[in-house]
Amino acid sequence: MTSAAKHVLLVGFMGSGKSSVGRLLAARLGVSFVDLDERIAREAGRPIPAIFADEGEAGFRDREFRALSALSVEPPSVVACGGGIVGRDENRRLLAELGTVVYLQVSVEESAQRCGAAEGRPMLSGRSDDAVAELLAQREPFYVEVADVRVDTDCSDADAVADLVEAALEAQNSRADRPKTDHPSTKENE
Ligand code: S3P
What we know:
Bound molecules: shikimate-3-phosphate
Strand order of the largest sheet: 2-3-1-4-5
Helix content: 55-70%
Mean pLDDT: 91
Number of helices: 8
Shape: globular
Low-confidence stretches: 184-190
Structural class: alpha/beta
Distance between the termini: 34 Å
């Protein structure tokens, strides 16, 4: 993330609340909201499960990379990214360039509760609970790697998570605005 960063990008596992929190946050920040999966589906002219069925996961990931890249020429927005966006190296590089990345953390149990049946989520369908837990464990280091800000969502509704994200972004901005002193300890002794 740089101080010239513009987008706020929400990442996290399925069911972490990226879309609902993103909508609330965008309204509060007065910027537009982008749901990357909705865009991908609109551009493909069919829903995500159909893209997976027709083009496989690799085809979906190519579309996801293109949709993410396109944000670089767009005005500031809050972006809800799909849960698997952190899997590709080039996506993680892009996320860092595009703005402030917020990792919405969710436990595998809470994710399962929120997602319910795997309907509409090809990465969950046919996967055992253990396999879903493994997928989250595989992705966790990538979420942490890209995150400028981390917020735990397990015990909070979307509104409360949006509060926490807003506060964390404000704290981050005020840290970025603070003038740098080379040797604070020396200053204290002046
Ligand atoms: C995916 C998550 C989905 C969607 C696609 C793949 C994943 O988005 O991008 O089904 O790999 O975790 P949500 O995280 O919004 O469900």
